[in-house]
Amino acid sequence: MHVTIAEAEKIVEAARDKALAIGTQMCIAVVDSGGNLVAFGRMDGAQLASISISEHKARTAATFRRPTRVFEDGIQRSDYKYILSLDGVIASRGGIPLVEDGKLIGAIGCSGAAGSQDEAACKVGAATINK
Q1: Cβ neighbour number for residue 75 with a 10 Å cutoff
Q2: Residues 102-122, buried b or exposed e (16+ Cβ, 10 A)?
Q3: CA-based angle 74:80:83, to the nearest 5?
């Protein structure tokens, strides 16, 4: 099972609306369960570096089937430096897996603001699927 284009576009829209509500600009990427890009949005004024970062966060969340915050916390709170050696990991908040009927169907990644804001937008986007 993979996230559909229709679902992915709704996810991007919900995350974008949250970013607008908190007064920031970001890039939002939705990938399928294999980490392949399905939908993407770059808000006006979002930094260019956030294009690839949002995709990386989404791919990491899909590949490892967990929020990217887990990796950030592992490094910052638990001093698990080995996480930095894992291929494909980005240890920054803002990547959330998408789960439908208990199955991973993709992930969302947001970048462009503070980690807490990226994560907040991702959670709103993911909530359109993760029920």
Answers
A1: 16
A2: eebbbbbbbbbbeeebbbbbb
A3: 80
User: Whats the size of the chain, residue-wise?
Assistant: 131
For 36, list phi and psi in degrees, rounded to 5: -90, 135
Domain boundaries, the chain: 5-126
Q: What is the tens place of the pLDDT at every residue in 3-58?
A: 999 999 999 999 999 999 999 999 999 999 999 999 999 999 999 999 999 999 99
- 8 A C-beta contact, residue 59 and residue 98: no
Token pair listed for 70: 């887990």
Domain 5-126: assigned CATH number? 3.30.450.150
